[in-house]
Amino acid sequence: MIIKLLPLIPHDTKIDFFGxxxxxxxxxxxxxxxxxxxxxxxxxxxxxxxxxxxxxxxQVQQDPDLASLRKQLEGLELGEVPIQEFGxxxxxxxxxxxxxxxxxxxxxxxxKVRVVLDxxxxxxxxxxxxxxFVGPQVGQELKKAGxxxxxxxxxxxMAYIWLRFNWQYGVGALLAxxxxxxxxxGLFSLTQxxxxxxxxxxxxxxxxxxxxxxxxxxxxxxxxxxxxRKMPMQExxxxxxxxxFPRTMMTSGSTLLALLAxxxxxxxxxxxxxxxxxxxxxxxxxxxxxxxxxxxxxxxLRAEPEAVVQG
Amino acid sequence: xxxxxxxxxxxxxxxxVLAAAYAAPNLMSKEKLAAxxxxxxxxxxTKTVNLGLDLQGGSHLQLxxxxxxxxxxxxENFATSLRGDLRDKKITYSSLRPALQGFSLTxxxxxxxxxxxxxxxxxxxxxxxxxxxxxxxxxxxxFSEKRIKEIKDxxxxxxxxxxxxxxxxxxxxxxxxxxxxxxxxxxxxPGVSDAGKIKELLGKTAKLxxxxxxxxxxxxxxxxxxxxxxxxxxxPASKLVVDKRPLIxxxxxxxxxxxxxxxxxxxxxxxxxxxxxxxxxxASTANVGKxxxxxxxxxxxxxxxxxxxxxxxxxxxxxxFTVEETTQVSLxxxxxxxxxxxxxxxxxxxxxxxxxxxVAAGKKACLMALLFVIIFATTVYGLFGMFASxxxxxxxxMIMAVMSLLQATLTLPGIAGMVLAIGLAVDANVLVxxxxxxxxxxxxxxxxSIDTGYQRAxxxxxxxxxxxxxxxxxxxxxxxxxxxxxxxTTCIGVATSYFCAIMxxxxxxxxxxxxxxxxxxxx
Lengths: 311, 523
Fold this sequence. Notes:
The structure holds two protein chains of two kinds. By secondary structure, chain A is an alpha+beta fold. Chain A has helices at residues 21-41, 48-51, 66-74, 102-121, 136-164, 167-191, 197-227, 233-265, 271-298; strands at residues 45-46, 53-59, 83-86, 88-96, 127-134, 194-195. Chain B has three domains: 6-55 and 352-516, Up-down Bundle (Multidrug efflux transporter AcrB transmembrane fold), CATH 1.20.1640.10; 68-147, Hypothetical Protein, Haloacid Dehalogenase-like Hydrolase, Chain: A, domain 2; 229-326, Gyrase A, domain 2 (2-Layer Sandwich), CATH 3.30.1360.200. Chain B is 54% helix and 19% strand. Chain B has 15 helices and 19 strands. In chain B, strands 11-10-16-15-9-12 form a six-stranded mixed sheet. In chain B, strands 7-8-2-18 form a four-stranded antiparallel sheet. In chain B, strands 3-4-6-5 form a four-stranded antiparallel sheet. At the A-B interface, helix 4, strand 5, helix 5, helix 7 and helix 8 of A face strand 18, helix 11, helix 13, helix 14 and helix 15 of B.
């Protein structure tokens, strides 16, 4: 009993993934449609990284009276000043919009807020954990640079798969990636979680995970096609997904466990980040099974190049 | 081949030992580490992972340099010398106006256009004429792109130098000051939890000049071509007209210090250098009885009357200062004037408590994640799971070692990249084990199964790792800030995980095969 096999990781499964593709397509359409709807109606809750503005995160020693604090800060005439509890009651996140009048005005605004906070909680007892200011110009640039980096990375992945496999695989991978990115954007829109620069790394993480899954199945498809030239495509796909199924269970299992550890012990700050990853990985697995793989069938992938009959 | 040659096995073990050694300094306490670094040569493992400002606390500032100001200054200087040269050549003109990157000249006599162009070329060869004007008497010209780039580059270099001096003078330790893009400077100040003071220091150009006051013009309040009206510090509503060209500029000062005068008021005392001493001596001799203005950043600090020639080479600036002001002004004068104004475009300050909280939480979460994964892998794969777990631990150590060696910066998103790498590492082992099981089930022998298992899985692992590596490299070259941090750890992690999964686990399995000589493996 050296390589044990616990019943929780089944092998020799013969699930008809391809046959159930219609249900999966409906699920995908709901995910994509819902995401697009959500994005167009609610949009993303963009953080200051992209909009410009100021964020102050503080920790105080007594439970704050949010209502009165809000009133005082609104009295400063700095526009709307949203205050949010951040993890615990005594951690607060205060956001200021971009003030008119250049960098000097931002500094003045931050100082005004500091005075109010120090008066309310007692000078010296407020721990300024984070102060971030992003100018509008930088915000625009970060938005552009982030978008560009993701687009180029996705094209790079597609190009590699195209070269290493076949164009059908490249297109399949691209479809899956779009599915995942739109899905996770929709999730951020639905929950209105802050969308900032570190959220981009969550999207990249999910995309990386999902493309890995896709590549592994594609690899198996290629191998199966070489071994069984006459096997119909739907069977090839089913066989490939089923034979990599234990691996998926195992890897997803350990990744989700690792995420669970991050969720439980990683501190409040990254909890929303981690839950986004959790759902993102489920979306990613779904896309590898039901978007990229079936698309090989629809793109008429065949075993041998000469087997592609003109028509 | 299921066997590994002896030298390959030794090499694998050697890499592991080296990794452990180079990762080890990260476990030392600060004091011990400093002592160790002082004792041994630097090629020995002495470096630790660089923590990003989000993890160690500190301030990150992105400054925009107003290069347009220097370009305009250059255009104005150009126009001034052109006026003189045109006069010498007796070329008359009706107007000469500096534009943003050049000037526009209207001649009285269009036939002198060629001569004027020659004069212009002589002063500045790197100029491009705008030929679109229909009127032959109008000459429009601008600096060439090459010249503009030169001006920009020089401005940024000088600004960085001045910023560095100012920050050093303020006593901040280990600042990182670097150019970013065409006209930006990034300043990173580890351990600084209130960037307000630094921003104040950087927000001032600190352009100092001593100018003669034009008393007649000041009475009428009308500044001529060579004069400019400036506000007084004490009373911004009233203005004095001073000569545009300064007698003395800030770079002619040698020493500036905060001090007190006889009346106990805070003042800035200074000493001129050689040129400054001579110039001020001459000017003060020629202008006895007249007031001169001490101008800092276009504000008149004070306008004392010259009672007698001043040739001693030192002096003081008084002007209702507070002690903080004199300290700041003298610091700015010592560090020098900025060639162009700076603007804070981005500021990110993380307090020390948030940084250390993030590190503590990150460490704990990573350890727990490892523990969960190890338990899971061992439950499912038994002994092979244990091999995979050891490889996973070695992988973590290797990532730390490589990060320390390359002095890469670890940030919060970087930790996310590490999690992805760990996921890929587990995945690689899983792929191999599943393949081995498949082979065993199809009835092959143990050695043959392990052999083909590795061979088959390797293709898949290379494909998946290369995909991850390609996207990480692209993100590294095109991304900014957090995206870069994510890309760095992913790149390193993918490389180390390939080594651990393919080489190390395999070595362990081989050693076990030789030692235990199993007859069969249940699959």
